Amino acid sequence: MRIGVAGIAGRMGRLVADEIVLAGATLSGGTSLEADTPPEGTTLFPTIARLAAVSDAVIDFTHVSTVHGHAAGLAGARTAWILGTTGLSALDQDAVEEAATAIAVIQAANFSPGVNLVLALARQLGAALPADAYDAEIVEMHHRQKVDAPSGTALALGRAVAAGRAVRFEDAAVIGRAGHTGPRPQGGIGFAALRGGQVVGDHTLIFAAGDEQITLTHRALDRRAFARGAVRAALWTAGKAPGRYTMMDVLGMETTA
Ligand code: NAD
User: Fold this and answer.
1) Are residues 81 and 180 in the same domain?
2) Residue 165's domain is classified under what CATH number?
3) CB within 6 Å of ligand 1 — which residues?
4) Do the domain assignments include residue 255?
5) Is 257 inside any structural domain?
6) How many domains would you assign to the chain?
């Protein structure tokens, strides 16, 4: 399979290029902003359409400003799109959905297989454990540079629990506590965010009952987990019909969100 890398000079793009070769697939080349230096020996293409023309799938960890152009270029060439770029607006998302009528698109805010499996388990636990007896709490820790809280993955965990419980996430979420908060609301899904050092991403989901406690923890140690997941997703697109898929589809798990 021929796999291209949009943003091949980036932190993620470099790792993805490595992982394509390690997986035994063909690295067809990449795109990059001129200011950035791609890995040595890379075949660079001036446009996404030129890269798409020589690729069966393109893995994309770039910038949200590329989404409309990439949607058109990849759909035009009938090349599968593995989209890891985050921060999309509703209009950007519309362009993704439009592309997915012509090509297979796998979109995930977190390509780590481990996180996606934890999301599936969170939904199952949410469905199995009665909300009036098992209090759901989510604790996450990230490096000191992170600007948003709670993390997107923490929110996805909360959404998975809410989906399992068949409640609206917005009604159940309790994001942070301070001062005289009163007792915990029954069925609430609580969040706490810690920041410090260079923690890549720790997430813990707790179901606390009076007589037992269940704890699920995911710890990202290296960005390579995301790169490896994205390559796995690219390989999975071989022979797939057009549509928008998630990592849950790649992993053969039920969709959580
Ligand atoms: P980065 O800044 O290191 O790399 C981005 C690269 O995109 C740059 O090298 C730049 O040259 C390239 N780029 C930007 N505009 C381009 C264009 N028009 N054409 C071609 N290349 C272009 O960033 P990063 O840390 O690699 O992250 C990139 C994106 O991936 C971000 O949106 C980030 O949030 C997301 N991300 C997602 C996951 C996931 O699992 N889904 C994991 C990590 C990062």
Assistant:
1) no
2) 3.30.360.10
3) 6-7, 9-13, 31-33, 36, 61-63, 66, 84-87, 108-111, 226
4) no
5) no
6) 2
- Nearest ligand 1 atom to the CA of 110 is 40
C-alpha–C-alpha distance, residues 66 and 94, integer Å: 14
Q: How far, in Å, from the CA of 246 to the mean position of ligand 1?
A: 19
Q: Answer yes or no: do 74 and 56 share one domain.
A: yes
pLDDT in tens, the chain (257 residues): 999 999 999 989 999 999 999 999 999 999 999 889 999 999 999 999 999 999 999 999 999 999 999 999 999 999 999 999 887 888 999 999 999 999 999 999 789 989 999 999 999 999 999 999 999 999 999 989 877 789 888 988 999 999 999 999 999 999 999 999 999 999 999 999 999 998 988 999 999 999 999 999 999 999 899 999 999 999 999 999 999 999 989 998 765 44
Q: Compute the half-sphere exposure of residue 142: CA atoms within 13 Å on the CB side of its CA.
A: 14
The CATH number of the domain holding residue 92 is 3.40.50.720
- How wide is the angle at C-alpha 146 spanned by C-alphas 111 and 125, nearest 5°? 50
- The whole-angstrom separation of Cα 248 and Cα 226 is 14
Give the CA-trace dihedral at 204, 209, 212, 215, to 10 degrees. Answer: -10
